[in-house]
């Protein structure tokens, strides 16, 4: 049994989500190979070779794989997949974009966003915004799986010494092209990797008021998130959304400010270790999952909190 | 150009579902059903393309039970021209749905297929990408902006770090994200008119589609409950608890 992990990487570095995905692969058992596909990714492959528990790194360095266009990357993964029992990728926007395309080309159903490994063919995954947990068994010859990174503690980024092997295959479907990207620039930690997350909801009133959360976050070294209601209302961009349809986070501390606690928001944060809710409505459902609830006007409580931490 | 929109009948997003006592699934008896929210955004985008003169015809398709006709009628009331129901009582996995949609694409030959990025029941986020694989079309998933320009469509995508724009050759598959548009409500006159629009029913058998899946759900359980904690009276008390009790700051 050998498992292929499709690595997530950015700016020439292995993304943390890859380490959680290797951890899921280790739970399944067997040899772990990591595929690094992209352009000028020699450095990424070198880093991937150091990940604890990785036996081999396959590097597909080709202009066709720059920007991870699924039309080009999926055929590469399919070509390689035939020798593997499992293909895993993190359930990032990138993994979610590519892996179902791989599964369909292999004529198998994918298992999305697993949170635990029961055996080599059986996995648990949340459905209905996490209101139910399904145990799913796959009979596919090659099991295609995305991994919810919060379900698995990252393996060590150092300590391994895997062989690096080049993959010559170049698949360029010629059907799609990268035009451009606008990446959010922030000195704060990345939302899904942060130890502390401060999130705002509709109660923030407008986008400008998020400055109170940024100030608090900077004091705590935290990332800033938002509920779908705040994104819908246009307060902040979608890449800050925490919830069923946004990012899934599980930090040590989650501070929900002016968030009522809709089902779909809880789906994205209820695995946080400690949850704090600040809301002026004492009936808000967020208090039902909060370890510490404070019924208060956020415009008074947040600046005071910033001073005291 | 012709636009195909796929929609799914799901539990209404306001319903808090309960797991059945025998762990065979969630209890859907007497529960309000609606069109999946991301599919509403897909229908709206198609209607806007038609209003701009880019789309000439909108065909809406659903793969599901006979009752999914309700959601197809809603889509017709919102502005779709005709509907196709691939009727099956079976609960399908994404690959089977994608195969049924592929058969409809082969028949209808649309230039653009728009789907929701994920259904809020299974939370799979697979069908659009799988349909793209089966048809060999390019895919623009998690779209926040869709612009048809000649024989290409530019799709701006919501990605983890921000936004990415790709240019796709037509025909192409687009899946919708939250900010693509804000769906309209159907007006009463349009709801009445929708009753007269054509709705064709076909079976997966007639399309020659296999519904087999490599996935089998063994059981469905309620998640571990998180118990409510305590209410603190002041910010000072909160900070004290976080420092000394929870030890997280």
Number of domains of chain A: 2
Largest sheet of chain A: 7 strands, parallel
Give the number of helices of chain B: 7
Side by side, the strands of the main sheet of chain A go 7-11-6-1-4-5-12
Organism (chain A): Pseudomonas soli
GO biological process, one term (chain A): fatty acid beta-oxidation using acyl-CoA dehydrogenase
Pfam families (chain A): ETF, ETF_alpha
Function (chain A): The electron transfer flavoprotein serves as a specific electron acceptor for other dehydrogenases. It transfers the electrons to the main respiratory chain via ETF-ubiquinone oxidoreductase (ETF dehydrogenase).
Give a nutshell description of this structure.
The complex is a heterodimer of chains A (309) and B (249). With 309 residues, chain A is of the alpha/beta class. Chain A folds into 2 domains: 2-166, Rossmann fold (3-Layer(aba) Sandwich), CATH 3.40.50.620; 196-308, TPP-binding domain (Rossmann fold, 3-Layer(aba) Sandwich).
């Amino acid at each position: 049994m050998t498992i292929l992990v499709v690595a997530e990487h950015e700016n020439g570095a292995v993304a943390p989500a890859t380490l959680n995905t290797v951890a899921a692969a280790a739970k399944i058992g067997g040899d772990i190979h990591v595929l690094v596909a992209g352009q000028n990714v020699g450095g990424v492959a070198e880093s991937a070779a150091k990940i604890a528990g990785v036996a081999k790194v396959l590097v597909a360095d080709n202009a066709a794989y720059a920007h991870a266009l699924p039309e080009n990357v999926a055929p590469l993964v399919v070509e390689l997949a035939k020798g593997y029992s499992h293909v895993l990728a993190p359930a990032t926007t990138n993994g979610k974009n590519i892996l179902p395309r791989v599964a369909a080309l292999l004529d198998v159903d994918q298992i999305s966003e697993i949170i635990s490994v029961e055996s080599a063919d059986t996995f648990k995954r949340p459905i209905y915004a996490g209101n139910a947990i399904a145990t799913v068994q796959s009979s596919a010859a090659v099991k295609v799986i995305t991994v919810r990174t919060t379900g698995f503690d990252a393996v060590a980024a150092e300590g391994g010494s895997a062989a690096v092997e080049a993959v010559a295959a170049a698949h360029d479907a010629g059907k799609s092209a990268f035009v451009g990207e606008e990446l959010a620039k922030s000195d704060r930690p990345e939302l899904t990797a942060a130890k502390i997350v401060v999130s705002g909801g509709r109660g923030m009133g407008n986008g400008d008021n998020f400055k109170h959360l940024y100030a608090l976050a900077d004091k705590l070294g935290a990332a800033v998130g938002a509920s779908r209601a705040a994104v819908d209302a246009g307060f902040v961009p979608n890449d800050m959304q925490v919830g069923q349809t946004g990012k899934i986070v599980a930090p040590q501390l989650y501070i929900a400010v002016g968030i009522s606690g809709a089902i779909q928001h809880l789906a994205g944060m209820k695995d946080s270790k400690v949850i704090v809710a600040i809301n002026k409505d004492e009936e808000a459902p967020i208090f039902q999952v909060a370890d510490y609830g404070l019924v208060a006007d956020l415009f008074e409580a947040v600046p005071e909190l910033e001073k005291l931490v | 150009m012709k636009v195909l929109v796929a929609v799914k009948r799901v539990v209404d997003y306001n319903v808090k579902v309960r797991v059945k006592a025998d762990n065979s699934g969630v209890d859907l008896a007497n529960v309000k059903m609606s069109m999946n929210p991301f599919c509403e955004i897909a229908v709206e985008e198609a209607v806007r393309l038609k209003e701009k003169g880019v789309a000439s015809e909108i065909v809406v398709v659903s793969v599901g039970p006979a009752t999914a006709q309700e959601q197809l009628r809603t889509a017709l009331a919102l502005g779709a021209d005709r509907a196709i129901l691939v009727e099956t009582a079976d609960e399908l996995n994404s690959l089977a749905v994608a195969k049924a949609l592929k058969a409809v694409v082969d028949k209808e030959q649309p230039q653009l297929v728009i789907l929701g990025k994920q259904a809020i029941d299974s939370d799979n986020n697979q069908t659009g990408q799988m349909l793209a694989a089966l048809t060999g079309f390019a895919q623009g998933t998690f779209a926040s902006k869709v612009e048809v320009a000649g024989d290409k469509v530019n799709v701006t995508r919501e990605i983890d770090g921000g936004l990415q724009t790709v240019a796709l050759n037509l025909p192409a598959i687009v899946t919708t994200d939250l900010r693509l548009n804000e769906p309209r409500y159907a007006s009463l006159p349009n709801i009445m008119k929708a009753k007269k629009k054509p709705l064709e029913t076909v079976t997966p058998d007639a399309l020659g589609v296999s519904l087999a899946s490599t996935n089998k759900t063994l059981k469905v359980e309620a998640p571990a409950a998180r118990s409510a904690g305590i209410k603190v009276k002041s910010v000072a008390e909160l900070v004290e608890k976080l420092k000394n009790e929870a030890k997280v700051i």
